[in-house]
Amino acid sequence: MEPSDEELMVSYARGEARAFEALYARHKGALYRFVLRSTKTAGEAEELAQEIWMRVIGARVSYEPRAKFTTWLFSIAHNRLVDHWRVRGLALVSLDDAGDDDDPPEPAAGPEAEPERALEAAQVARKLAHAIAALPLAQREAFLLHQEGGLTAAEIARATGSNEEAAKSRVRYAMRKLREAIGDE
Fold it and tell me: What kind and span of H or E run contains 60?
């Protein structure tokens, strides 16, 4: 049985470097996607994600498993992004800067591999990316913490310093706005 994230972080705090490697492997993708969708460019996202991981490394000695590791990790990410947005005047950003729109996602095997379906999927993905970028900042963050981080409303509340009802509302409003923006697609 795999050790929990919290057990890995405690092991890392005791000096076991492999524990950090396991945590990093488990969460690097979700953290990077969360940061990427909150910044202007892939380069910025990479830099911020590395800063967040460096903060995790720096905080390892004082880590106490009072909440899920992901809640703690995304709290660090939230605080770093708040600093990032504050410096930039809380500007909304686009997800399109993360990659070239001319490169549609790789089609999956099966019926989705048909060119028309692959094109439709790429168009829906771009539409969703624009809709996410257009969400108010608090709703976008709550939505991404839920989707990318897998956090519950209570964990989102802890990570962002809000209350659980506010977190639930933000996710619910974000989902409603995204459904409206995407339509039946």
Answer: none
Q: How far apart are the first and last CA of the chain?
A: 40
Instruction: Kindly report the pTM of this predicted structure.
Output: 0.66
Using an 8 Å Cβ cutoff, are 165 and 171 in contact?
no
Give 19's contacts (C-beta < 8 A, 6+ positions apart).
Answer: 3, 8, 9, 11, 12
Q: Which residue has the tokens 């106490």?
A: 64
Q: Which residue has the tokens 């379906």?
A: 117
Question: Number of folded domains in the chain?
Answer: 1
Token readout for 17 is: 């470097």
pLDDT digits (tens, 9 = 90+) for 81-105: 888 888 877 543 333 333 333 333 3
CATH of residue 69: 1.10.1740.10
- Domain range enclosing 133: 5-182
CA distance 130 to 124: 10
The Cα–Cα gap between 175 and 185 comes to 14
Q: What tens digit of pLDDT does each residue of 109-123 get?
A: 444 445 666 666 677
Structure tokens at 176: 């409603």
Nearest to 170 by CA among 155, 185, 156, 151: 156
